[in-house]
C-alpha cells in the first residue's frame, strides 16, 4: 500500500461502521515541541481522503476555516511564510509564539484586540519580548487577512504600555569596566563579551556566525543580516582579541562560532537569560549586547576613525552615496582603523 511522504500527513481507516471511514490527518507541532495529530476531514474512500490531504497541503487555509484556531493559523503561516523569513526573524517569531499559549485554542475569527493586549500586558518579560509578541500578532493578522479568515486586523491597535518602553539612552562600557573585563580575560565568557565590544556585531549577527565565516589568515570576520548595508560586511579582527577567537575555534568548535554549552545554536532571548544577564550581574555591570556594539562605535569615534570607515565597519548606510561601495575603502584601511582601538 502506498504511503504518504514523511511530514506530509497520513490517511487512516477508522474502526466501526461509518459512512466515511477514511480520515485524513496532519501533525501539528506546538510551541513546546510536542507533536499532536489533527484530523482535517473524513471520506468514503482512501482515494478521497488522499485528495483531501493533498488539497490541504496545497492550500491549508481552505480547510476548516470556520474552526481555524490561533495555533492552526500559526502553523499554516509558518509553513507558508516561514521559508521567506530570515533566521533571526523566524527564531523571534517562534519564541514569541511560546508566550501566546492562552490563545492557542481560540478560533481566530473570534480573536479581538483585547485578548491580544492581555497577552502582551501579562507577559512577565521586558520590552524586547513584548515587542516580539506584537510583531507576531501583526504577521498572523496580515496572513489571516490575506487568506480571507478575517476582515479587520485587530493587532493594529495592540500597543506597548509606556512603562514597557526602556530608556533609549545607550551607555557604552566605561574604560574602568573594560579594564575589569580585561583583568578577567582568562574567563571564556568574558572573552565572548570582549569579542562583542571589539567587533561591533549585532547580537544575532555574531550568534549566527559560523566558523567558516572567520578567516584566521586574513584575520577577518564576515557576516551581517539586518540591513542591506550591513549584510556580508567584513570586519577585521583587532589584534587584542585574536587569541580569544582562536581559542574558541580550536578548543570549543561547533556548528556556530558562539554556541550554547550543549553545542546548539543560541536564540537571542536564551542568550540574554542564560549567558549575558547572569554574567553582567556577576561582574556588577548593567549592559546589553547592543551596548557592546555602541561601545565599539564610540571607541572608533574617539580614535578619530573617519565616517566612511565607521559606516563600513558598523554596517550603517552612509549619507554619502560614494561611501556605500566596499571597494572604496580597502581592507587594509579598515584594518588600520580597527588597530587604533585600545584595551
Overview of this protein structure:
This protein has 343 residues and is mainly α. It has three domains: 10-58; 72-164, Orthogonal Bundle (DNA polymerase, domain 1); 175-338, hpI Integrase, Chain A. It is 43% helix and 9% strand. The chain is built from 13 helices and six strands. The protein has helices at 46-58, 70-81, 87-98, 113-122, 127-146, 175-183, 188-199, 203-207, 242-251, 268-283, 289-302, 307-314, 331-338, and strands spanning 10-13, 22-29, 35-43, 214-215, 220-223, 233-236. The strands form two sheets. The chain has a three-stranded antiparallel beta sheet, with helices on one face. Strands 4-5-6 form a three-stranded antiparallel beta sheet. Mean pLDDT is 84; it is low at 320-328.
Could you state the order of secondary-structure elements as H and E? EEEHHHHHHHHEEEHHHHH
CATH level 1 class label of the largest domain: Mainly Alpha
Estimate the global geometry from the Cα principal axes.
elongated
Question: What is the CATH architecture assignment of the largest domain?
Answer: Orthogonal Bundle
Termini separation: 69 Å
Sheet having the most strands: 3 strands, antiparallel
Helix content: 40-55%
Which stretches of 5+ consecutive residues score pLDDT under 50?
Answer: 320-328
The mean pLDDT is 84
Derived from helix and strand composition plus strand pairing, the structural class reads: mainly alpha
Widest sheet: strand ordering: 1-2-3
What radius of gyration results from the CA coordinates?
Answer: 25 Å
Topology-level CATH name of the largest domain: hpI Integrase, Chain A
